[in-house]
Fold this sequence. Notes:
The chain crosses the membrane at residues 32-53. This protein has helices at residues 2-24, 33-53, 57-63.
Amino acid sequence: MKYLAVLVWAIVLLEMVNFVLNSLEGGGALNFVTPIIIAVIFTILIILFDLVIKPKNNQTKNEH
């Protein structure tokens, strides 16, 4: 569920960035696909990062 929230927020924020940058360039046609692809890639990177930094259960038992 937390990864779904990351995906939703990434899509919302990247669409806003896309809109602002498009407005600064003169207001041409909006590209909705590119921010969604970047949001999916960002979410995959967050999932991989979470898997890498998550401690294993037997490591925490030995430290205490």
